[in-house]
Records
---
Amino acid sequence: MFKNLGKELRDFILRGNVMDMAVGIIIGAAFGKIVDSLVKDIIMPPIGFVLGKVDFSNLYFTLYPLGEKYDSLDAASAAGAVTINYGLFINTVISFLIVACAIFAIIKIVNTIKDKACKEEEAADAAEAAATEKECPFCCTQIPINAKKCPHCTSEL
């Protein structure tokens, strides 16, 4: 039962789809870091500035001890306070929306390229099919392109 397990595992790993998936996961993780930085360092500071110099990463609500105020989320965490970090949640939602828009754009572009390639392939197939026949100049029927005599009207071509 386990004799060929190593060979089967190797064959599974070396299949094209598995390798493509691994590359996609690695690129996706790197892309996620880029998007997190984009949201945290580029998008949220101007939004926070426009909304009255609010730092979204420091927006939280203290559950325990109730009513206790801290200078920052880090200070609350260091004190052992139980908090609901809605500012971090807002950052995460914005990150998700950016990733979703980027993936949508990429899929849209890939589908457009695939559609164009399919149409070109269909046109090439149609041209190839058309090139295998010609019209008899005497009876106007379609005949093989290499025909020397029309099978319909028996005219010499």
---
Amino acid sequence: MRPPVAVLDANVLYPSTLRDVLIRVGQAGLARVRWTKDILDEVFRNLAANRPDLDTDRLAHTRRLMGLAIRDVEVTGYRRLIDQLELPDPDDRHVLAAAIRCHASLVVTKNLRDFPAAIISKHGVTATHPDQFLTAIVQENPAALTAICRDIAGSWRHDATTRDVLRSLATEAPRTVDLIRAANRAGLGPKVQ
């Protein structure tokens, strides 16, 4: 089965641990994650405004790395579709337009009410919460997501553990973390430390 194509909304790329997990899901080929320049503009504009403690050079570096992390991640050529679309929040039309343009079946967002099924299903798109998106991946391949969390811990400070990553991820994806822990207790995937 081919992995789903999923456009990641700005609100799921804002939290650092969730962003890292979603990017690594794309790198692992568990889903084909996509975003646009407009989506990244929103992410990094909000990070700069809400987190003045973050160095702007580091934010720019993170954005560059995101663009290099996954081949063909950026959707282009979607802007001409925006004016043809209607959503409760007109500022979200660019996300749906990107999904249509890249033939995505999913928009991963925390704002499900902004992407009503009655509207977006006409375009072959479903909105899904990041917890639901990651839960489906864990159910298909618990070892892969556990390994992703272990690898993230390895990229954090020296004494970080997979448990630290799971604690952070639980804020945004509690059901996913519960499934990873249950799979680990059942002996599926690498041991959570």
---
Amino acid sequence: MTMRHTVFSLAFSLLLVARAAFAAEMVSIAGEDINMRSGPGTEQEILWKIGDGFPVEVVDSKGEWLQVKDFEGSTGWVHKKTTQKTPHMIVKANKGTEQQINVRSEPNTKGQVVAKANYGVVFKTVEKKDGWVKVEHGQGVTGWVEGSLLWGF
């Protein structure tokens, strides 16, 4: 392997790491009825509205605008001022069903079920431990959810 090839490989590896770090940036929505737009700017079409705490992954930015992707893979643009770094998660399990996930008193399947949640319910992330996430809902429920059932921070 030549020195030039080694330098190129190293530079390419660093670029991939940098892209992965950027692609993994998560934010959550700050406020109710925030416009998700088709492009970066207030003149762009409103695709849908999203609510407080909704977690999104930043995939690109342009000026004060962030292109984001939600847990279903849909993308759109939001203004930076409508986002926050406070970690939130959303229930990704059981799409298209009435089946609910358990929110437990402890980070294990033996913990008492303190609440249940449907697909798409947003929780504030409080703590992570051994594959479990301690979550808090706006209606005052706090408990643990198995991490594979959630998407977000």
